[in-house]
Amino acid sequence: MKRVIFAFLSMFVTAPLFAVAIDVNEPKTIQSEKIEYDVKTGAIKTSGKTEITNATGQRMTLTDSYLSQKGKDVSGNDVKMWLGQHVYVESKNITRNGNDTVATDAMFTACDGCDSFGNAWEIWASKIRHELDDRMLYFYNMVLWAYDVPVLWFPYYSMPDPGVKHKSGLLMPSFGSTNKMGTQINVPVYVAFSDTHDATFTLSYLTQENPLFQLEHRLNLSHAEFRTRGSYTHNRAGDNRWHIFNNDKIDLGEHARASIYIARASDKTYLQKYGFYNDQPYLDSGAKLELFVNSGYVVADTHSFQELRARSNWHGVAPTGNILPNIRGSFQTDPFFYETYATVDTDVLGVVGDGTSAQRFVGDVRITSPWTLWGGNRITASVAARYDFYNFDNTIMADGDTFSGVKNRFLPNGYLEWGLPLVRPGDTWTQTIEPRARLTVRRHIDDGQFAQDNDSAGAFLSDSVLFSSNRFAGYDLWENGTFADYGVRWAAFNPDGRNVEVFVGQSYDFDKRADTDLNSGFHTFGSDYVGRISFNNSKWLDLSGRVRFDRDSFDLRHAESSARIGTNETYLSVGHIWSRQLSNIGSDENNTNEAIAGAGIKLSDRWSLQLNAIYNWVDDTFLRHSGTIFYNHPCYYFSIGYRRDNAVREDYRGNTTIQFRFGMTVQGQHY
Fold it and tell me: For 460-555, where are the E strands, in sequence order?
C-alpha cells in the first residue's frame, strides 16, 4: 500500500508546482474566461473555467484559481490534471499557503482509460496535506478502489513525499506456500540510515514451522560497496538453522582492489529447504587482493569451503581442505621482435584440512612466437619451463603412504602449432575451412601426481580442451610426455547473420599415459573422437551440440545438445546431456542421461506463461519442474508460480512451492 500511495504523491505534489511556475522561456498557456494579472505583485487570478498546459503536454483544468508570484500561494476549485499516459488527478479544492498544501476530496489513478469497463485502481481521500518543511504527506480517510469496488480503507496515513529518496517503513508483503512448511507470509521492513546506507528486515511467518528472520544490508561509499544477506530460524525440532552471504568490494586506488566474500550455512540442506539454494555445489568464503599494472597483475586470495553435495554424487577426484593463501601473478612483456613475447606466471598455494597440509610454489616462464607465412599458413612456436616445489605435512601420497617433507619436479615443454584458414567468398555464403594441428613436447614422467587429494578433478576430453598445454583442470596433475592435437573446422556465414560451424578432432599420446579415469576419453596413443556443431539464424533458431565417439568401436560415449526456437517472448528451449561410463558397461548406475526443457508463451498482450523442467531418464523421474503465469496490466501486475523439487539429500525430501506476487504499476514503474 505504501508504494501505491507513493506513486499517487509523486503525481500529486507536482500539481501545484505545475500550475505555479510561469516561465517565459518555456512555452505554457493559460486559457480562461477572465484572467487578471497584478503587475505589482506578479500574481495571476482567473475566473470561471481555466485550462493550463505546459510544454510537455501536461494539462490542468480548474475554476476560480489564484497563483501568486513564484507559486508561494496557490488555490483552485474543481481541479483536474492529466499528468501523463493514463495518469489522472482530480480534487474539489487545492490550496497552497507557503509550505503547506491541502487538497480536499482528491482522487488519483494511473489507469485512466486502460480498460473500457473502468479504472483498474484509483485512490480517494477526503483530505491530503503536504508539509514541505518535513517533506511529509498526510492522508485522511483514504480508500483504495479496484474496478469501482472499494477494497482497502485507512482512517489516517502518513508517508514521505516523492522528493525523499529513502524513508523507513513497511514494504509490500509477499505470499507463498510449500507442502513441507505450509503457508509463508513475508513482511518486509525497510530502514534507511542515510542515502547510501539501508537495510531490509523481513519476518516470515510459516504455518507449519517456526518463524524465519531475514536481513539484507547495503552500504555504498565513494570507493567501496558492502552487501550482506542472511537468515535465521530456530525450528520446531529445536535446531538453530541459518545462512549468511556477504560480498564486499573496496577500491584501493587506480591499481588495486580488495574483496571479502562469505558464504556459510548451518548445514547442507538448509538453503534448499528454505528457498535460498541456487544449485551451488559448495559455499566459498575468503578474501582477495588484486594488483594491476599495464602488462601484468597479481592476485592473492584465500578460500574456505563448505561442501553441499553428497560425496556419492561426485565423479573423479575432488579437492578437500581450505586454501590459505593462494597468490597468483602474471606478467607479459612487450614484443621482442615481430610478435614474439614472453609471459611469466607464478602460483603460491597452501591447502590445510583434516590434520594435513601442503604448500606449493609453481613457476612458469614461456616464450611464444606467432608467424603468418606464405599462402596464409599460420605457425605458432612456444617454449616453456615449469618448476614445482611442494612442502607436505602428514599428507597421503598417490601410492597410499603418508609423507611429510619436500618434493619438487621440473617440466620443460614446448609446442608447435600450424593452421591454414582457407576462405571461399560467395554472393550468399562465405565459407572457411581450417585444418589445425599442434605438437606438444614435454618430459615423460612415471607418475602425473604426488598426493591423492589435489586441485585437479582429472581430465575430460572435449573439443574445448584440444590445443591446450594443460588438459587437466588444475595444477597438481601433470600431463605425461609428448602428445599431438589435430582437427578441422568448417564454418559459413551470410550477410543476414546466419552462421553454421562444424569441428572434428582427436588427441594422440606418444607415451604411455599414467593411470587416468577410463571415462576421460584419453588413452595411450589415439584418444576418442570429439566434435561440435552449431547453427544460428540470428532471429529465431539457435542449435548447438558436442559429441564424443569411442576410438575403437565409434560408439557414442558423450553427447550434449541444446536448441532454442522462437523469440524472446514465445520460445521453446531444450537441452540434453548423455554420457556412458565405461566402468559400468551393462549398468546405468553412474551413467548420465538428463534432459532440460523450457518454454515461454505469450498468450496475449498481457498474459504470458513460462514452464521449465529437468528430467533424469536414468531414474525415470523429474528432478525439478516449475511453471509461472504472468499478467502485466498497464496499472498492475501479478504472477502465480508453481515449483516442484524432487531432490533427496539427507533430511531434505523434496518440496512443492506455490508463490503469489502482486504489485502496482505507474507509468511503467513497478511498486
Answer: 483-493, 499-509, 525-536, 541-549
230, three cell numbers: 542472511
Collapse the DSSP code of 584 into the 3-class scheme (helix H, G, I; strand E, B; otherwise coil) and give the result: helix
Count the neighbouring beta carbons within 10 Å of the beta carbon of residue 516.
Answer: 19
441 in Cβ contact with 448 (< 8 Å): no
Q: What is the pLDDT of residues 413-440, one digit of tens each?
A: 999 999 999 998 888 899 999 999 999 9
State the residue for C-alpha cell 606467432: 370
Dist CA 328 CA 314 (whole Å): 28
Q: Where are the beta strands (DSSP E) in 510-552?
A: 525-536, 541-549
User: Which amino acid belongs to residue 411?
Assistant: L
Q: In this structure, which amino acid lies at residue 625?
A: H
Q: How far apart are CA 61 and CA 53, in angstroms?
A: 9
Q: What is the distance between the alpha carbons of residues 153 and 5, in angstroms, rounded to a whole number?
A: 12
Cβ atoms of 630 and 607 within 8 Å: the answer is yes
What's the rounded Cα separation, in Å, for the pair 153 and 143? Answer: 4
Q: Which residues pair with 245 in a beta bridge?
A: 229, 263
Mean pLDDT of 306-323: 58
Contact predicate 502/490, CB 8 Å: yes
DSSP 75-96: EEEEEEEEEETTEEEEEEEEEE
Give the DSSP letter of residue 514: P
Q: By CB neighbour count within 10 A (0-12 exposed, 13-18 middle, 19+ buried), where does 18 fall?
A: buried
**Distance of alpha carbon 618 from the chain centroid:** 30
541 with 564: CB under 8 angstroms?
yes
Position 57 scores a pLDDT of 67
Residue pLDDT, tens place only, 267-283: 988 998 888 887 778 89
String of b and e for 235-245 (b: at least 16 CB within 10 Å)? beeeeebbbbb
Q: How many CB atoms lie within 10 A of CB 619?
A: 12
Q: Please tell me the distance from the alpha carbon of residue 487 to that of residue 36, in angstroms, as a whole number.
A: 88
Report whether 299 contacts 328 (CB < 8 A): yes
Name every residue whose Cβ is closer than 8 Å to that of residue 233 and which is 6 or more positions away in sequence. 209, 210, 211, 212, 213, 240, 241, 242, 274
Q: How many helices (H) and strands (E) does the chain have?
A: 3, 38
Under 8 Å CB-to-CB from 118, ≥6 apart: which residues? 147, 148
553's CB contacts (< 8 A; 6+ apart) are none
Give phi and psi for 589, each to the nearest 5.
-60, -45
